[in-house]
Amino acid sequence: MDILSKRPFIEPGTPPKKIAYMIGCTIGTLIATTAISYAYIYKFFETVELLKLVDKGEIFFFEEAGYTLGLILCITPMISFAIMILPTFINRRFNSSISLGALLIGLLVFPIGLILAPISNFIVESYIESQGYEECYYYSTSRVGRGLPPDYYVFDSKYCVSAVSELRDKAFPWFEEANKKGEVDYDEFLLKVEQWKAESRRLNK
Q1: Among 171, 204, 203, which Cα is nearest to 189's?
Q2: Is 83 helix (H, G, I), strand (E, B) or coil?
Q3: Number of H helices, E strands in the chain
Q4: Do 166 and 203 touch, CB atoms closer than 8 A?
Q5: DSSP letter at 157?
Q6: What distance in Å separates the CA atoms of residue 127 and residue 66, rounded to the nearest whole number?
Q7: pLDDT per residue as tens digits for the range 49-85
Q8: What is the pLDDT of residue 149?
Q9: Smallest Cα–Cα separation from 61: which of 191, 204, 161?
Q10: Which of 75, 96, 99, 150 is the most buried (most CB within 10 A)?
Q11: Whole-prediction pTM value?
Q12: Quick check: 77 and 106 in contact, CB under 8 A?
């Protein structure tokens, strides 16, 4: 059985404008599916690396997105679709049976990913909390441009301060530096909070 169909992607006599439109849509779709898949894969491995740091106790503050471990399966239809597009660059198509098989695989795996996403999130959160970390709800609220609100964890509940919810643009870089240094000082943190409050225009209106 031939993998590729004998029917070309662009039929002879197709108007140039339509050809340009078809090629543009093909390239745009391939770029979009590749970018989305990369983002999901990157977040998946980022979560895996985070769990390694949590296991070793080598991180103090972090955002958690355990749902990505299950949601990774949702990129299957996008990857399948991207693969189906590739023969168009040599003006060919996959035969109908292969295209149908790829479509069915994508449609079957996608809902499994949606089901596993909350399950994986629950498992990851349970594990993180079993290691002594606590979620700080003040830091887990939605931020502009970030989509779904992430769950933010701290290694000690005393670092979960309500005032910092309005000072995250100052506090989060400080948290990241503390993670890099591998040490954190509570008195320094309290001084920083007071400094951030004094510097905040929003809190001093």
Answers
A1: 171
A2: helix
A3: 6, 5
A4: yes
A5: G
A6: 10
A7: 999 999 999 999 999 888 889 989 988 888 888 888 8
A8: 56
A9: 161
A10: 75
A11: 0.76
A12: yes
Q: Walk across the sheet containing 134-135 and list its strands.
A: 61-64, 151-154, 134-135
Q: What distance in Å separates the CA atoms of residue 10 and residue 13, rounded to the nearest whole number?
A: 9
- DSSP conformational letter for 10: S
- Given the structure tokens 């749902």, which residue do they identify? 67
Displacement of CA 14 from its chain's centroid (Å): 40
Q: With CA atoms as reference, report the closest residue to 178 among 97, 64, 58, 80.
A: 58
Q: What span, in angstroms and rounded, lies between the C-alpha atoms of 197 and 195?
A: 5
C-beta separation of 43 from 95 below 8 A: no
Closest CA to 86 of 15, 33, 36: 33
Query: What token pair was written down for 26?
Result: 């093909």
Spatial separation of the C-alpha atoms in residues 138 and 170, rounded to whole Å:
14
Q: Which two tokens stand for residue 92?
A: 């060919």
